[in-house]
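fyi for ur records
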Amino acid sequence: MTIDFKIHRGKVKQYLVDNGVLSSSSELAEQLGLPSIMVLPETPRGLYPLEILKNDSIAKPATTTTESFLTQQRYEVTNPSQNDQINQIGKLHRGIQGQEQDSAFQLAQTLGADIYIQFQMYYSKKELGSRSFYQVTVNLSAFATTTAKSLGSVTANSSQSQESASILVQQAIHEAMPFLLTRINAFWKENLKKSVRYKLKITFSEDVDEEDMEDLQDDLADPVSSLFPKNKEDLTDNIMSYLLWVNPKKYKNARNVLKPLRKRMKKNSDTYKLKRTMLRD
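which gave:
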């Protein structure tokens, strides 16, 4: 005699959290801050992820469901479709067309996500008498953006039913995500023992002309890179933004981070103002 068991993954994970075996997302957010995550379909080299999102009928609900799940768990979601990022994405698209490069990795790096998740979806059909039943299988894989290191993969199935494809996609992703987040959280917790992330925002006065702007940007970029070699720069109009990864033993708080920068940036300080915030939820 064969007995089939169905295990509810979400309840198992919650049991482990309740008994102190795993850390919940809310506890991790309070203690360490959570990473920014980008969600993309698995993309063959030389193709572009956003084209797949546009043309694949179940890729969009898969992305939306995964992003919503992350948002509910207090993660910061990096959405490549946001209007203020279109120019960067367009440049990246033109740069990778026809090339054998990992476009998901490049896109995540360009937009500053800490981690990116790629998904594969499989849609199957089973005939029982005169009725058709459908099932979605999802494979979710997470990667660290700085190195493209794999953090793990999880595969899950929806139920077999006559529900719409979008509902079956939601079921499969909700089964897989708690276990993928366990692996992401373990990586992030270990990663933050070595460095803490800050955001530095430099806003220039409106009366700085275009000719002076590039010189000022160079003057400011040098001390940032010198003090914090691990950084991510973003330039938009009159704003310079940086993600900085700093040694928590050397820089214990945001004030300690900003102090050496201010000393190095006193030259021409009347032409810009600094704003920094620690990336915490």
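Residues 1-5, 276-281 have pLDDT under 50 and may be disordered. thats all i got for now
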